[in-house]
Amino acid sequence: MLRRLTIRDFVIVDRLELEFEAGFGALTGETGAGKSILLDALGLALGGRADAGAVRTGCGKADIAAEFDLPLSSPLNEWLAGQDLAADDGAVILRRVVEAGGRSRAWLNGVPVTQGQLREAGDWLADIHGQHAHHALLKPDAQRALLDMHAGAAPLAAEVSARFHAWQRLVELRRAADHDSAASERERELLAWQIRELDELAFSTEEWGRINIEHARLAHAAGLIEGADEALATLGEGDLAIASQLRHVSVRVDGMAEIDSDLADVRDLVAGAAIQADEALHALRRYRERLDLDPQRLAEIERRIEDVMTLARKHRVAPDELPNLRADWARKLDDLVSRADPARLAEEEKRLHGEYEAAARRLSAARMPVAEALSRDITDAMQTLAMAGGKFEVALEACASPMAYGLESVEFRVAANPNQSLRPLAKVASGGELSRIGLAIQVITSRDSATPTLIFDEVDVGIGGRVAEIVGQLLRRLGQERQVLCVTHLPQVAAGADWQWSIAKVQRGSEVLSTVRVLDREARVEEIARMLGGVNITETTRRHAAEMLGAESSGG
């Protein structure tokens, strides 16, 4: 569960250090006070997308850190161990820094990580349900993804999609082979001729480097010979040759050092210089012996270079890219030869189709019982959310042909009132009904989640009265199983919480900042009375707020 959240210079927050408790916690306050900003900060620490707008005006960076306690049974422990990120005390600390220029950095348990690693860890730690999440439920893709995730079949759905696309690629290859056999034959012939042409050149990148070095030496042979002769004369010939002069000086200084030890370092330096001069002289003599004018060899190399350059210009590549070009041609030729074998293509297509169908049938088998259970559970929840007699169904309809998402379509259907027929959710649900159904779906699917912390950001928009009280009770029961945080404007929901914070804006000099206050029971009465009665809070409103808290404490 989430234990601590530290925020520095994020949007309108300067410094906050928040300690979280278990159970169901409510975050309340006036509109615009910064309630959702706290969740945005947490989302950033969990690996969400960052931009420069997250940094408080006038500051260089925003810094957010979130600390979680991790159950020993959490699958995240194995992932952390595999990444060498596990902490000795079992805690998980996520940190994110966003600079004013937009660049961001991330750490996990003090180790620098990528945003992707941070997000992967965050997915195990917390689920954030946004206030508009129920609108996504109107889309077929979102309905199908929710069912697959609830069934634990998301990896299988991804496998089905991959196998479908692999099968369809083979189908396209076979069709192309059937319709374009003549064009394919011409392309095969051209590729084979181009490959033979390169093979006849017998060229390699190693040879290219070698002949360019040799060409440079032969092309400049006269200058190299002249320079080598001059260097040899200076180093080793005549009474004033450098090597002999250094040997003479070395002998002289060696004798002096025998008398005065202060010259020992000078003796060693001069002796070293004499040895290096002799080594350079010997190496230069060997080089000069190999060096000769060879116009015939120079002409051979220039013809070779021209042959390579001509072929490289023809195919518009650099000379050293010719071997890679040949490898590409060879792969294309193998592909075309494979396409030209209808029996082989048909066999491969049949194999891939079989693999897709087997995976798709496993996906169908995983979806069916979960669709039935989800239909039943959400229908039951609707009876308590002012939709008595309503019904919900996750309908699985067989597709006319195989699809990337499987053998059946997934559609959420609802009958909001008794004696109504089930129709697609997108066509019949009003705004309030959609909010209630969406909340029921989120709460029910969250029960089976392994995520220890669930966060709801104003998901109760569009409901009120008795329904709001029931929602508070739902979240309170959910809070008995895991940590639940909820940003809410509804006093009935806030009254159902185990603990409550109030978020408000304060003026500090020229700045407007967001602050958080932990509420005791007396302060909770005042806050819920404010939520009930607005600006003018009466004693009657306070009694009502106290009764709501008392009822929730005794009946939750």
Automatic annotation (TrEMBL):
The keyword Nucleotide-binding is assigned to this record: yes
Species in which this protein is naturally found: Aromatoleum buckelii
Lineage of the organism: Bacteria, Pseudomonadati, Pseudomonadota, Betaproteobacteria, Rhodocyclales
Gene: recN
Entry keywords, A to Z: ATP-binding, DNA damage, DNA repair, Nucleotide-binding
Domain RecF/RecN/SMC N-terminal: 1-509
Keyword hit for Transmembrane helix: no
Signal peptide limits: none
Function per UniProt: May be involved in recombinational repair of damaged DNA.
Superkingdom assignment: Bacteria
Similarity comment: Belongs to the RecN family.
Protein name: DNA repair protein RecN
